[in-house]
Design brief:
- Pfam families: DUF411.
- The chain is α/β, with parallel strands linked by helices.
- It has one domain (2-147).
- It contains 4 helices and 7 strands; from the N terminus they run αβαβαββαβββ.
- It has a 7-stranded mixed beta sheet, sandwiched between helices.
């Protein structure tokens, strides 16, 4: 009976892992300016999570055109802008939130981490709190996730 239970649990975990990886296997198109180390750090973070990422360096005016064209206002921006499956990904959005966005598919513009908060992917280690915001089609936002996760949280 123990062997049967172990196989059942292993199979369930395998299915969960496969569905998470399938969502993470998506393509993300990133636009940034050249020489930005934190942008490259975020790209590496996404690649390590299984995303297929391209990164194109643009002149600042062209990058701003991408941001505003996606529906972002200046207070919602950061240093780089990504796109995945019709959603905008602005700034240092954690890969797990990108996966959640692509799985849940809310009626929204996308996700943003305004500014460049310490501790966000690509910005080094820190316990500084920050929020990932869901940008709705009317331009308003709501909190999609908060970091760091509270102690004892089951979120990963």
């Amino acid at each position: 009976m123990d062997v049967y239970r172990k196989l059942l649990v292993a199979g369930a975990l395998s299915l969960l892992s496969t569905s998470a990886l399938a969502a993470a296997g998506e393509k993300v198109e990133v636009f940034s300016t050249s020489g930005c180390g934190c942008c490259l750090g975020w790209v590496r973070h996404l690649e390590e999570a299984g995303f297929e990422v391209t990164n194109e360096n643009l002149a600042m005016a062209d990058l701003w055109a991408k941001k505003t064209g996606a529906g972002l206002t200046p207070e919602l921006t950061s240093c780089h802008t990504g796109f995945a499956e019709g959603y905008v990904l602005e700034g240092h959005v954690p890969a797990r939130d990108v996966t959640r966005l692509l799985t849940e598919r809310p009626d929204a513009i996308g996700l943003t981490v305004p500014g460049m908060p310490a501790g966000s992917p690509g910005m080094g280690e820190s316990d500084e709190p920050y929020d990932v915001l869901l940008v709705l089609k009317d331009g308003s936002t709501e909190i999609f996730a908060s970091y760091p996760q509270p102690k004892g949280s089951t979120a990963e």
